[in-house]
Amino acid sequence: MFFAFLTLIVGLSISGTAAYFSITGLGQLFAASFWGVVLMGFVIESGKIISATWLHKNWHNPLVSTLHKSYLMLAIIITMCITSLGIFSYLSAAHLNQEAPVIEQLTAERTVQKQIDTLQADLNNLQKNLDQVNELSKTSNNPSLDAQRTRILRQMDKDRNQINDLDNQMSKLKQQTSQVTLKLGPAQYLGQILFGDGDENTDKAVEIFIALLMTVFDPLALMLILSANISFQTIAGKQPTPQSKKPQKTPEIIEEKHEVKKEEIKKLPEPTQRNWWFN
Length: 279
What we know:
Number of strands: 0
Structural class: mainly alpha
Low-confidence stretches: 239-247, 253-268, 270-279
Distance between the termini: 77 Å
């Protein structure tokens, strides 16, 4: 009895958790009418559990037609698919919300790196111009070359200062990115184990994991609830009776034995009387 109640409680707990994930995921999928979708999901989840339990108890009921049972089976399967899709939506949104800060940090790093590359390219061009000015100043004493050299050196110093500032900014961004990516560590390790390195492999691993949860979550809840019903029916139908503890002989056997004894009693006195008479 205790195990039957435990099975029922666990089944209802899993079903309630799956319903929460599914309803929340459907609400996020149709965010424009969140509370309407939540109400619809709650009613559908309740109807699914009641339909599965009722169909199990009335499967052999002669008043229930095949069409009736077929429709209920189809409705249960469709609602299980809806629940699974809601769970997929909920977990996918959770993974994207966890991945969004990492994407923002990586985007910021790429932006800063592009600025550094642009300044470095400009610095390289300025260095080439400076080399050309130095070569020309060796052969001529043009005062404009000195002014041009001063302007180039001033711009080079400015570019170097900007590159240093961007390098400091990049180091801070990398520290923030490393802290944010710690949350994605398990998913990244799972993707590396299954498919190897790469961000796309992390997404594949997460999708496979969510698919496994979809296939086991709601069906397991329904099967545990039906198993609890079977356990309660079994307990109710196998209560021991007092007569079953002490087996007794059937009345027919007892009557046959009594008849045999009566015949023996009738036959035995006759020869004894005859012997006594002749003696």
